[in-house]
Specification:
With 344 residues, this protein is mainly β. It folds into three domains: 133 residues, Galactose-binding domain-like (Jelly Rolls); 79 residues, SH3 Domains (SH3 type barrels, Roll), CATH 2.30.30.40; 79 residues, SH3 Domains (SH3 type barrels). It is 7% helix and 45% strand. The strands form six sheets. Strands 2-1-4-9-6-7 form a six-stranded antiparallel beta sheet, with no helix packed on it. The protein has a five-stranded antiparallel beta sheet with strand order 16-15-14-11-17, with no helix packed on it. A five-stranded antiparallel beta sheet has the order 23-22-21-18-24, with no helix packed on it. The protein starts with a helix and ends in a 9-residue tail after the last strand.
């Protein structure tokens, strides 16, 4: 009986210890459905090379080219000197969370636009730990990562440290958001346009002496970076970086697409464009973009879209002999109802 009693005590103790250990385990959360945009540069310059979705979070060790969700190499992305911006929206319970970010090389973590980890330099494998208090509900996360050379390693995870209702200690530190502002320099006024192109429709004019908050950037015109911003009057649009002086580096700004990227698929309007001169057909409404071909004097093309400046048509998007691109409007006649042609 004494042996049986001792055995039962030992078994009970082991069960209690096992339960206590199981309760002490805190599971890591990697999040779900991250979208990654890859660049063949370490500072997000140039165009997006690949866009991939990572359903099960960010936990990578890439020895050569980056890989997709299934482990297939992304051969268009170079193995070294690349950068990738991951974004997601995650649902959190209210509480204080411990975020652990491990990277080789540079990494930044933003939560709801606030920078909480900022080490965007070439480093050995390093883990960064930060504690953040979050309200219940959805929060946006952004991870900027670049690899200089050798293996590209990235792991982002978080743990619920304390529920918000039981917090009595000092609140978690609040990070200061990095803001990129700009002012107009060297000109009396800078055009604000509907897209990042010289030929996009004119919205208004930015003046020196005002401060504008930059929200995104775009490189597709080729010569200068364009920035997306909101004016003090509430107008949003694009301005050329040629005449903007920035308060911070623009590497924290994401690249934003526009309606011009998908305009080639617009339907036929029934309106015909007829040039009165030989016209270059360009990728976008700007002489700085690549030439796709030419239209002859008197040629006829379907007119799909247009831009406007000063109340007059500025550039036309046309479909001519299988080529879809932009021509300069002042030297083009129109047959049909121009009001049927959308303005971009």
């Amino acid at each position: 009986m004494k042996y049986i009693w001792r055995l039962s005590v030992i078994l009970t103790t082991m069960i209690i210890l096992a339960l206590m250990m199981s309760l002490a385990i805190v599971s890591a959360d990697f999040g779900i459905n991250w979208t990654g945009q890859f660049y063949n540069s370490t500072d997000f310059s140039g165009s997006v090379i690949e866009t991939e979705v990572y359903v099960n979070g960010l936990n990578f060790d890439w020895e050569a080219n980056p890989e997709d969700e299934d482990g297939t190499p992304l051969l268009d992305v170079q193995p070294d000197d690349f950068s990738v911006r991951f974004t997601s929206t995650q649902t959190f319970a209210a509480g204080i969370y411990d975020f652990d970010v491990t990277a080789n090389d540079g990494v930044r973590l933003f939560i709801d636009g606030v920078t909480v980890v900022d080490s965007f330099t070439t480093n050995e494998l390093t883990t960064y730990e930060v504690q953040v208090e979050l309200t219940a509900g959805e929060h946006t996360l952004q991870v900027d990562f670049f690899n200089d050379e050798d293996d590209a390693i990235l792991q982002v995870q978080w743990f619920l440290s304390t529920t918000a209702t039981s917090v009595t200690a000092t609140p978690a530190p609040t990070a200061t958001p990095i803001v990129v502002n700009a002012s107009v320099v060297n000109v009396g006024g800078l055009s604000l346009r509907t897209g990042p192109y010289l030929g996009a429709s004119l919205i208004g004019v930015l003046r020196p002496g005002n401060v504008y908050n930059l929200q995104a950037k775009n490189f597709s015109e080729g010569l200068f970076t364009w920035y997306y911003l909101t004016t003090e009057s509430g107008f949003t649009g694009w301005a050329s970086g040629r005449y903007l002086e920035l308060t911070n580096e623009d590497t924290i700004l994401g690249e934003l697409g526009t309606a011009f990227d998908t305009a080639n698929s617009l339907p036929d309007t029934g309106v015909i464009a007829v040039p009165r001169a030989v016209m270059n057909i360009r990728v976008r409404p700007s002489i700085r973009t690549d030439r796709l071909g030419q239209m002859p004097w008197g040629g006829e093309a379907q007119l799909l879209a247009r831009t406007v400046q000063g109340g007059n048509d500025f550039w036309y998007l046309v479909r001519y002999e299988g080529i879809v691109g932009w021509i300069y409007a002042p030297f083009v006649g129109v047959r049909g109802n121009i009001n049927n042609v959308p303005v971009l």
